[in-house]
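We emphasize that the prediction below concerns an isolated chain of 216 residues; any contacts that depend on oligomerization or on bound cofactors are therefore not represented. The input was used exactly as deposited, without trimming of termini.
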Amino acid sequence: MADGFRRTPASSRYALVLLGLFAAVWIALAISPWYRQDWALENVLVVVAVPVLAWGWRRMPLTRLSYTCLFVFGVLHEIGAHYTYAEVPYDAFFQSTFWFSLDAALGLERNSFDRLVHFLYGALVTPACIELLDRVAPPRGIWRYVLPVSFIMSHSLLFEMFEWLAASVFGGDLGQAYLGTQGDEWDAQKDMLMATLGSALTVCVLGMRGWLAPRV
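Result of the prediction step, given as a token string:
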């Protein structure tokens, strides 16, 4: 089994390196964000999640795979927070770097960075969910595949409700920037679907690699 898929806790050095790299990214993207108030809202969950992960390190350390996936997701989230999710200039980057429009090539009519990050939320957070379930209440049989995806689905629902509540409280341009629906009335449902698909893909890949086998 490849090193990245072993079910052994990450070393403290590896975890600290990722934490340091994330801190550097966070500081860099905290400088002159496009919409400071939206950036602050987007970072509420980060301010909660990072200390929780640090607290859980000694009590329930995760594997290198899980920490790496969480790090990648955190970086992508900070990019979305810096520009606002609806305005991340990924297509401009493709046009200036590769001389073609990614949106045009894929037939996209909206900024799809938020869709990508919701998909990757499901894909990248699922390994940590699998580990936590194994530590707290190890599922058996088919539930080893179903519960991690259900966990992500419930997270996505709660996050969409949090977004709706925040938009209702703050309203105006800030509320719209935070929601990032871009005029799509089914935006929340599509975001939850993308997270579910991402989680299901990860479960399938890890299942084929033997990562979902019961721990002994």
